[in-house]
Amino acid sequence: MGRLNHSKIAVLTLMLTACAHVAYAQAKKPPAADDPRDVNLSAYVQLLRSDIRAQKVAIITEVMDFSEAEDAKFWPVYREYEAELGKINDERLSLIDDYAKNYDTLTDAVADRLAKGALDVEGKRTALKTKYYDRFRSALSAKTAARFLQVENQILLLLDLQIASALPLAK
């Protein structure tokens, strides 16, 4: 991969992490259920999620540089992967929301439940990547599937770091 591709990846990744940070900030302190802004906030978070997905697609498109045949095989499988990953991410957001609600009064029992939930979500994400690596490898070459897994892992690590850096440590 040439220097130009690294620069494009860096710019696209920064855009992606900025979107993720804003999405997290919006989801972190939702308005009260009776607040009329609730519907608008939900719509805004959904918009940001779609923007993050679009940024991921842009990064993957740029880095992978698929042929027409690879492109036709990759994207249908990727859409299925993203749909399943979205469900796992929803579980993670729910845990983060639960943590935020309990932060000031965190008990050992709640901390234990949240920690085990986070480990469960992490395990689900790893299992999903394993499952889809096999599907990508069947549709493409092993080398291409491995390159996608590298790109996906880099994106997910950057998003994880962004979220982790915004969460306060348990007290």
| Uncertain parts | 18-41
**How do the SSEs run, as a string of H and E?**
HHHHH
Estimated share of beta-strand residues: under 5%
Helix % is: over 70%
How far apart, in Å, are the first and last alpha carbons? Answer: 44 Å
The chain-level mean pLDDT equals: 80
Largest sheet: none
What's the short version?
With 171 residues, this protein is mostly helical.
Describe the 3D structure.
The longest helix has 35 residues, at 68-102. The chain is elongated, with a radius of gyration of 18 Å. The chain contains five helices and no strands. Residues 18-41 have low confidence and may be disordered. The chain has one domain (3-166). It has helices spanning 3-28, 37-64, 68-102, 108-139, 142-166. Helix content is 85%, strand content 0%. With 171 residues, the chain is an all-alpha fold.
Index terms:
single chain; 85% helix; 171 residues; mainly alpha
Helix and strand arrangement:
Elements: H1 3-28, H2 37-64, H3 68-102, H4 108-139, H5 142-166
